Amino acid sequence: MSPSPPLRAITLDLDDTLWPFPPIGERIERVLHAWFEVHSPKTAAQFPIPAMRRLRERMIERYPRQSHDASWLRRKGIEVALAESGGDPALADAAYDAFFVERNKVDFYADAPAALARIAARLPVCAVSNGNADLRAIGIDRHFAHRITAREFGVGKPDAAIFHHACERLGVAPAEVLHVGDDVEADIAGAHRAGLRTCWLHRDDAREKHPRWPKREFMPTLTFPTLTALADWLDAHLDEVPR
């Protein structure tokens, strides 16, 4: 059996890997509704938070070709809400800006900032995300050699193409890359099918001695409950930073 090629780079998911997304999603809904109450009361009245959720589902169903583009879908939902409630369509830009500011207010998992810095000091890191987080606005862009989003690339995870594009940007072969993420299908299965090594970050059951990996056809290359555990593993297994 031939030895594995050296590990030369990391691709990294963002939402629910560096920070939990559900609190962000809930806050976005509250802030956007409050914005409409001030700037377009008719829209706020016709589209309370549950109605805006249903509208977002409508947008996903109506525009399947844009399913990879979270920003486009959000903006389109705002436009439709304004139109259907008789609001001023010119408010769409400002409403989206209010959403985007809140989108990038993240509460990191406690271990994530320090662990990310350690990992980035070891290997080049490329963010690969289906979301629309802004690394510069969040203040962590210095840790990333590259960032690839589904919106910019045209398809999202678990499509192999976005993983292969990340490898090309990093200048390494898929087998030399470790993809780190929380989502079993989008992150781990997608990266596995694309030929990358995989690290499943299973924060949800971090207290379990044996994490509940749900698939039988393959196993992740690595499984850790925290990003710190991955940083520790890299420190133990990489002799030096690749040049």
TrEMBL record:
Gene3D superfamilies assigned: 1.20.120.1600, HAD superfamily/HAD-like
Name of this chain's protein: HAD family hydrolase
Pfam (any one): Hydrolase
InterPro entries: HAD-like_sf, HAD-SF_hydro_IA, HAD_sf, S-2-haloacid_dehalogenase
Keywords: Hydrolase
Record organism: Solilutibacter oculi
GO MF, one example: hydrolase activity
Taxonomic classification: Bacteria, Pseudomonadati, Pseudomonadota, Gammaproteobacteria, Lysobacterales
